[in-house]
Write a structure and sequence with these properties.
Chains A, B: Pathway: One-carbon metabolism; tetrahydrofolate interconversion. 2 copies of one chain form a homodimer. With 313 residues, chain A is α/β, with parallel strands linked by helices. Chain A has 11 helices and 11 strands.
Chain lengths: 313, 313
């Protein structure tokens, strides 16, 4: 991991889309094997509350990705005003009685259905209450506090790792970047990315620092990192001169910035100034096309793994 | 947090014994209030398997500490060869039916009994299996993965924080040392100290780095810390010149080293070279008499808090 300034060596762009495509092919082939050998396929139940356009679009993406690899997904649409208790009851039904979807489980030969509640939920519903209800055996998003605890603890393994953090580590390992004994800096400490990715890196023997909104000298700390995981949600926050030459930069940020040259009026950028990073880093993920496709691929992987565990029982 | 080398300023010694004594007095007075107001006191059930001398001695210490503040403790002694299933059954009984200790609960007016399984357990018993069985409402040690997950997650709070990590933060706050935006380095990543103390510091807005046995440059990383939590279990590992002048040093290590001048043939030292640290640090905890007494005080605090929660329900 070294470069000289004269060389102006270009970073290797980590092509998340291509890696995710490879992983999806691997999953498709495993699903095919399950189907041939056991006559069963994995399922994914997606609960959507209300009709937010962004949520609909994420759910559509997940539905398509499932279909592509042979995972049977089915949506449960609940109205915007659904009472929390009713949503929780729906989760409990999915936990306890897969046979309430007799048609799906018998006709489609589903062996296991992961449960995913699309976030965010409407303001009148307490997300924690709902997510805590998902059986940890079906929590393919891996957000349950019990899963997070096991993620961090030595000698314990969660049933599912959260999809985005898992995708970050997969990008590193499939790019041949070793984590062990490396200095890793995680920028951000959210429950869905920063915290769990820090725990995963620690378990993989990296020396991990978490910087966040209350950190006074993020820039100098980030500059010491061999591996940067940027998950702050701040457009172009990390400049080229914040990056140690040769470092691996995984950009989890997805920020919309105004762009009058586009029909939509905006474009998506990461937390890292990509052009600058390309001149300094050893590896860098683009936005879009880096971490994003991996999140969906890891959701499929978790769903497959849940089904395999169920069949092996 | 600055000092000049000429001054040879001595660090403030954080007197854990005195702070723990203050906390115990506070607890005793709260227990007295509970007893007066509700006619109930907190209880602590301690399960001991076998007859390890060190375990017996820890349990005695806890028993005495409970008695001193008015918490009713009772021991459940199980033979060394007790089958795992039988131990788990005992835990489940304590979870579900406080009234199996009718005598204790009625005569002694116990409102709540925390459950503590003294570690280590004999080799034929899987500790994880046993600890996972303790109801999280009674897990006064705070070691359940669900508690650890909530400890780390934003917006979630565990019912109980593990005693030693909680004791470390209490030592800092009662010494007037602010954690927010400080660089904290945790040395060690064990489930009972390193990991949870890192999560607590992160939640308290410190910028946290965890170094461990696979870290290649611990020394230079530790030197950047405003707050050092040493929990590596390596006698005198951290030298004076590893410490930034003025830093706060919390030494969790308790290591026996040979000392022919003592009748016992050994003495206890921390992970930090105490004499050297005194010349550089702003604050330093001694071993013994630093973190140790705080662990027991926090156990009493957790037990009290559990009882208060029960009464308020």
């Amino acid at each position: 991991m070294a470069s000289s300034e004269e060389e102006q060596k270009k970073a290797t762009i980590i092509d998340g889309k291509a890696i995710a495509h490879t992983i999806r092919s691997e999953i498709a082939s495993e699903v095919q094997q399950l189907s041939t050998k056991h006559g069963k396929v994995p399922g994914l139940a997606v609960i959507i509350v209300g009709s937010r356009k962004d949520s609909q679009s994420y759910v559509n993406m997940k539905r398509k990705a499932c279909a592509e690899v042979g995972i049977k997904s089915y949506d449960i649409n609940l109205p915007e005003k659904v009472p929390e208790a009713e949503l929780i009851q729906k989760v409990q039904e999915l936990n306890a009685h897969p046979d309430i979807h007799v048609l799906a489980f018998v006709l489609l030969k589903i062996s296991f259905a992961g449960i995913l509640v699309q976030l965010p939920l409407p303001a009148h519903i307490n997300e924690e209450n709902v997510l805590n209800e998902i059986s940890i055996e079906k929590d393919v998003d891996g957000f349950h506090p019990l899963n997070i605890g096991k993620l961090g603890m030595k000698g314990r393994d969660p049933l599912f790792q959260p999809c985005t953090p898992k995708g970050c580590l997969e990008l590193l390992s499939r790019s041949g970047i070793s984590v062990k004994s490396k200095r890793a800096v995680v920028v951000g400490r959210s429950n869905i990315v920063g915290l769990p990715v820090a725990l995963l890196l620690l378990k993989a023997d990296a020396t991990v620092t978490v910087v966040h909104s209350r950190t006074t000298d993020s820039e100098s700390i980030i500059r010491e990192a061999d591996i940067i995981i940027a998950a702050a949600g701040q457009a172009n926050m990390i400049k080229g001169d914040w990056i140690k030459p040769g470092a691996a930069v995984i950009d989890v940020g997805t920020n919309a910035v105004d762009d009058p040259s586009r029909k939509s009026g905006y474009r998506l950028v990461g937390d890292v100034d990509f052009e600058q990073a390309c001149k300094v880093a050893g590896w860098v993920t683009p936005v879009p096309g880096g971490v994003g496709p991996m999140t969906v691929a890891m959701l499929l992987k978790n769903t497959l793994d849940g089904a395999k565990r169920k069949i092996e029982q």
